[in-house]
Description:
By secondary structure, the protein is of the alpha/beta class. The protein has one domain (8-194): 3-Layer(aba) Sandwich (Rossmann fold). The protein has seven helices and nine strands, in the order βαβββαββαβαβααβα. It has helices at residues 22-31, 65-73, 92-100, 111-120, 134-144, 149-165, 178-194, and strands at 11-15, 39-41, 45-46, 61-62, 77-83, 86-91, 104-108, 125-130, 171-174. The chain has a five-stranded parallel sheet with strand order 2-7-1-8-9, sandwiched between helices. The protein has a four-stranded mixed sheet with strand order 4-3-6-5. α5 (134-144) packs antiparallel against α6 (149-165). It starts with 10 loop residues before the first strand and ends with a helix. Residues 1-6 have low confidence and may be disordered.
Amino acid sequence: MTSGDRGNGKIIILSGPSGSGKTTLYKKILKDPLFRKRLFKVTTATTRPPREKERKGKDYIFLTRKQFFLRKKAGYFLESEKVFDNYYGTPKKSVQTLLREGKDVLLCIDVKGAKTISRQFPQAIKIFVKAPSVRILKKRLQSRGVESKEALGLRLKIARQELKESSKYHYIILNDDLKDCYQNMRAVLRECLRK
Length: 195
């Protein structure tokens, strides 16, 4: 993709460890009347099975591993990463179309995916969401009640690695209290959209 193909749209990346609250914030932003017609979602592809209430094509594009790797080989993804036991990818064409139309794209992706996109789009704005401490992060993950002890340990190990990358982000938002965190997120996004 050349810079001429990018239109005037911006890419805003939201990252953070499992349990930081980034997905909750992402969903709230997309429903917020202030951002509903200003920030656009690109539906991520994944090889993980749907969770309860998730809808195919809306929440995720659910693919088999074979389908995922065929698409990856064909250049379908802007970025793709293995996250724990499953693969995730951002469809390239969806992002290109929105940017060409001058629309701003909000991506909720992990740190490795954010690095890949930043290499292609150095002007992408990166926001990192973090919990007050690893101890609180662990408590949040345990409260989900879906993690085995091994899976929880792996998530915490990856979280520690991801936290080291937070200094490379333009903004770091602390999620101690969801309501306060969301207000901070709104203020950051308003500033990003003004630039």
